[in-house]
Write a structure and sequence with these properties.
The chain is of the alpha+beta class. Helix content is 38%, strand content 24%. The two termini are 22 Å apart.
């Protein structure tokens, strides 16, 4: 305990002269006001007790990671993992735990005292779902100290981190002046379209005034900017027929190929300047045999940008390309009926950015700095996109440890010194934001 305190005091002295600025490598130094605030908190015995307990909990944290990873959580099928996570939060001592209408797991740790200068509710979040479909083998394989399994890092480790934070808060007896919600959300990945967090910010929902997500690898990354995206499913339909006998009929697959070509050509020209923007045709399908003119073809398209206006411009390019391809294919037909196209939006993640000078971001920078980390402000597509887009303070921080192969069957995670460090960092940021009584 004493060594820990000496360690932190040492780094407090090193950084006591810093003022807020941005270095050339995109690292940020927090305002001295927030450094002092975190320094003061670090001296509290209960914070040091919580840090010590996090170290003691390491075997339990690893056990929880193995347990939750091996409970499948495919897109739109997170129920079993949600029930298990709810039970763990209840056992960890939450004041109240429930699963809401869309499947989010919410645990409340009530404030000991209200303070009008603090947000009423501060959320610490990680997502329940993985990208892997039903039937995927999620059994953990061990390669020495390395754990290998689909979804072990993204974001099962995040779930375990926020669970351990709750355990440490309760064991150390830390009391806050804002309610804390520990939340496992559904629908963060893929076509889930952030449905869990969107539900939490629906009209009439309890007011959440500060949001901290745990979803990412490197501890120096502090995500304060939401990467916006639009996703579409495009379906061309027609009569279909024999490749020889009905030749000359408009062909949905030909239209699809033409649509991809027009879109990619125009989109590539657009991205040569301006804010970073991307496009991708991720899935295609259609047809019943090699000697048939298909009656249907389809594709799924993803486009992203750090700037909302650029995303809208890319969307416009896409929409016009689909109509141009439809028109061209119909113009070429010699017989039969004209094709139709259906363009369905299947994903809408808003973009936005939280100003660097707001308290939550400054506190995140200060906490990282006092852990001897040079923090970088970054852009990402996470649950934080929703509160960020609505002007609510939000940030996404690291789950810690070393990992790789995200969204791959051989995803891996290795606990190193940054593993427990990330849990301590999350706890300290949460308590700083929620206010310690």
């Amino acid at each position: 305990m004493k060594l820990q305190l000496i360690y932190f005091v040492f780094f407090l002295a090193i950084f006591s002269q810093r003022v807020f600025s941005q270095d050339q490598d995109n690292t940020f130094i927090p305002d001295e006001k927030y450094v002092k605030e975190v320094k003061k908190l670090l001296k509290k015995k209960k914070i040091q007790d919580a840090f010590e307990y996090i170290d003691i909990l390491e075997p339990r944290t690893l056990k929880d990671l193995v347990y939750l990873t091996e409970i499948p959580a495919p897109p739109f099928e997170e129920e079993k993992r949600a029930e298990a996570f709810r039970d763990l939060l209840d056992e960890a001592g939450a004041d109240k735990v429930w699963i809401d209408e869309v499947g989010n797991v919410i645990a409340v740790r009530k404030a000991a005292k209200r303070d009008s200068e603090r947000p009423a509710v501060v959320v610490l979040d990680a997502h329940l779902d993985t990208v892997f479909p039903e039937g995927t083998d999620v059994t953990i394989k061990f390669n020495g100290d390395t754990l290998i399994a689909p979804g072990i890092g993204d974001d099962t480790r995040g779930l375990v981190l926020i669970l351990t934070v709750l355990r440490a808060l309760n064991e150390s007896g830390i009391a806050t002046v804002a309610d804390i919600w520990i939340v496992g959300t559904v629908g963060e990945e893929g076509l889930g379209d952030l449905r869990g967090v969107k539900h939490l910010f629906r009209p009439g929902a309890p007011a959440i005034r500060s949001w901290i997500s745990v979803d990412g690898g490197s501890t120096d990354r502090i995500t304060n900017s939401g990467l916006g995206s639009h996703r579409y499913r495009v379906t061309f339909t027609g009569e279909g027929g024999h490749s020889w006998g009905a030749f000359g009929m408009a062909n949905p697959i030909h239209a699809l190929g033409r649509a991809i070509n027009i879109f990619v050509t125009e989109a590539d020209g657009f991205i040569q300047s301006g804010p970073k923007t991307s496009y991708n045709v991720g899935r295609i399908g259609g047809g019943i045999s090699v000697n048939s003119i298909s009656f249907e073809s389809w594709m799924e398209v993803d486009m992203r940008s750090v700037e909302h206006s650029s995303l809208l411009a890319m969307d416009d390019i896409f929409q016009k390309a689909m109509q141009a391809a439809l028109q061209k294919e119909n113009d070429l037909r010699k017989n039969g009926e004209a094709l139709n196209v259906k363009i369905e939006m299947i994903g809408d993640r808003p973009s936005g950015e939280v100003p660097v000078d707001i308290p939550l971001i400054q506190r995140a920078l200060a906490v990282a700095t006092l852990f001897n980390i040079s923090p970088r402000l970054t852009t990402g597509s996470t649950n934080s996109n929703i509160p960020i887009s609505r002007g609510i303070p939000a940030v996404t921080i690291s789950r810690g440890g070393k990992g790789g192969g995200s969204h791959a069957l051989k995803e891996w995670w290795l606990n190193d010194s940054s593993g427990p460090q990330a849990i301590k960092l999350a706890l300290l940021l949460l308590v700083t934001e929620a206010g310690m009584k």
